[in-house]
Amino acid sequence: MLRTFPSREALSRPRHRAADVVVFLGAAAGLWLLVRLSHGLTAPFDEATAPSRISTDPAELPYYAARSSLRMFAALGLSIVFTFVYATAAARLRRTEKILLPALDVLQSVPILGFLSVTITGFIALFPGSQLGLECASIFAIFTSQAWNMTFAFYQSLVTQPRELDEASRLLRLSKWQRFWRVDVPSGMIPLVWNGMMSFGGGWFFLVASEALSVNNHSYVLPGIGAYVATATADADPGKVLLAVGVMIIMVVGVNVLFWRPLTAWAERFRVEDSATAQAPRSLVLDLLRRSRVPRLLGRTSGRLVRPLDRIMSVFGLAEHPLRTDPLRRRAGDVVFAVAAGAAIAYGLTRMIVFIAGTTGFGEVGHALLLGLVTFGRVIALVIVATLVWVPIGVWIGLNPGVSRLAQPVVQVLASFPANFLFPLITGVLVATGISLDWGGILLMALGAQWYVLFNVIAGAGAIPNDLREAATNLRLPRTLRWRRLILPAIFPSYVTGGITAAGGAWNASIVAEVVSYGTTTLTATGLGAYISDATRTGDAARILIGVTVMSLYVVGLNRLFWRRLHALAERRFTL
What we know:
Blueprint: H1 8-11, H2 17-38, H3 61-92, H4 94-109, H5 112-126, H6 132-159, H7 163-171, H8 176-187, H9 189-205, H10 207-211, E1 212-215, E2 218-221, H11 225-234, H12 238-267, H13 284-290, H14 294-303, H15 306-313, H16 327-357, H17 363-398, H18 401-416, H19 423-433, H20 437-449, H21 451-462, H22 466-474, H23 479-513, E3 515-518, E4 521-524, H24 528-538, H25 541-573
Antiparallel strand pairs: 1-2, 3-4
Helix pairs in contact: 3-4, 3-6, 3-9, 3-12, 4-25, 5-6, 6-9, 6-23, 9-12, 9-21, 11-12, 12-13, 12-18, 17-20, 17-21, 17-23, 17-25, 20-23, 21-23, 23-24, 23-25, 24-25
């Protein structure tokens, strides 16, 4: 009998033994490297005799680069777990949303040094006599530079999810577990991948601060490329700084080629639209994996666990909304929740006020507020300039797959490259030209925060359904009308997410941008970032608390008064 349609075998990609060998060898090399690096995690550690510098022998750079990469990916894994749990709770639980979203604003606003000053002592005490405590503190610091942006992006994808998907989930009577993995994660995969890539770049930026730790009048270092740059900077050795910059570029390009590029190409399978894109992104690594039998064998093995897990997780109930809720019961629950949350907040505020009154006094709070106003001006200038520059460029890249294929590696390198590696060299330029760090600090902050706007705009433009683009082309809309009616409304939710995280990232970047050093030369700008950096270095707990609290007030106030209103507008009017 003649077949009308091709068989599954005819449509499947040809499998090659060479691809199997390459994938197997790559996996074996990765496992060997992981085991090799894990031996150094539990090295003996004595807080009293811990060294404050590492060897700057160039032969050690490959090992340092591998240790730094291991910390980055460990922090990325923690960030993904946190994103799934936190964003889902904020989007699906009405009461907890009132607490989790403001808390996320506060967490995003707390600088990385604020977390380190509190957590490093606890991690060291948790693993006495072992370097694992210091490693955990470093990984946690990197985690705090990655998690918030990813959480905001996934939360936005959940609250702007098409109503058809919600109705289909309830009609199919999916459990909450099934809905999360079959609907929520796939529908939010593209923005999650793009923001994960951006967050990973943010982690590189704070690599120096997380590997060369200087808190509470103590200095600790971990083997890593960030600590290498810190030591070379203290030695005023520009040659070794440039050598580390070269190794860092190789690392960023390698991670992009081997990890992020295949992941972004694979995420295209989750794009929801009626017509296909003209030119889908591709990856040589992904093509190699698809031609190998190894991923299919692993998929078959793990696929056997799907049904048992579905049965076990069905205890959490179905993904549906109650048809009717008792208003009295609902109101009573709201009152109890509000009282409990208010009591916890009141207790924390009372303890904080008593502590400040008994140490520095409230006059220090006024001083910190004035310094925060200066840094606030730098943040506003950065966001405005980043919007004017990167929105048109991001739209151009996102709407052109061919351009995106060429531009994404370049953008990824620029965004992921830790700009503070160049701070020692920029310090020399500022000293030579006489430019004040009060103005130069804006540029340094922009180098670490502007990419959030670009990446989110690229993701938003790339997610515009191709059928809408074709309709605009068929209607021959003029350029101005196309931007007003299609492009700007479509990218608006993504831009708001990028603006929120860019502003928060700028506040965080002010910690390292308002105080720069090279050898014996140190430049300090007037601002809240320099205030917190100095308080952390000297171990002044009261000033650390005041600085972090004031920064949180500025960030949360800006989010509440401006960015959240734009976020609500995006949900109400500009959801595709």
